[in-house]
Amino acid sequence: GYDKKAIAAQRWLSEFGGERGEKARWKREKLRLPPIPEPEIDPVLKELLYAYSVISRARRYAGMAGVPLPLSLTEINEYLATHPVLIERDEFEAVIFALDDQYFQEQCV
Fold first, then answer.
1. CA–CA dist 2, 66 (Å, integer)
2. What domain count does the chain have?
3. Domain interval for residue 43
4. For the chain, which has fewer Cβ within 10 Å, the N-terminal or C-terminal residue?
């Protein structure tokens, strides 16, 4: 499904996208490592990655340390109330939750 594609694309974009990514690609080239191929991002996958970025801006935080909390259906419902999506809602939710799980695995260890 789209969950694995979205996670792979998100990982690639976080490592090789933007200015930081240019440096990472340059470093791989100088070390004579093979380039990591850019994932194919179709319109649905693009929409899912955009939706996750918008929804995650509504993330709640807990405690004095500002510990990030997982996204909930509340944030997803707020997004869906104003944005039509190209896939079924249950698959949309599964992808958003998979991306959020990946965020916690990578960022909040």
1. 31
2. 1
3. 2-107
4. C
pLDDT of residue 20: 86
Q: What is the pTM of this model?
A: 0.86
pLDDT tier at 1 (50, 70, 90 boundaries)?
confident
Residue among 21, 1, 3, 17 at smallest CA distance from 100? 3
**Which pLDDT belongs to residue 5?**
95
| DSSP line for 2-45 | HHHHHHHHHHHHHHHSHHHHHHHHHHHHHTTPPPPPPPP--HHH
% of the chain at pLDDT higher than 70: 98
Contacts of residue 98, Cβ cutoff 8 Å, sequence gap at least 6: 3, 4, 6, 7
Q: Is 107 exposed, middle or buried (0-12, 13-18, 19+ CB in 10 A)?
A: exposed
Distance CA 2, CA 8 (A): 10
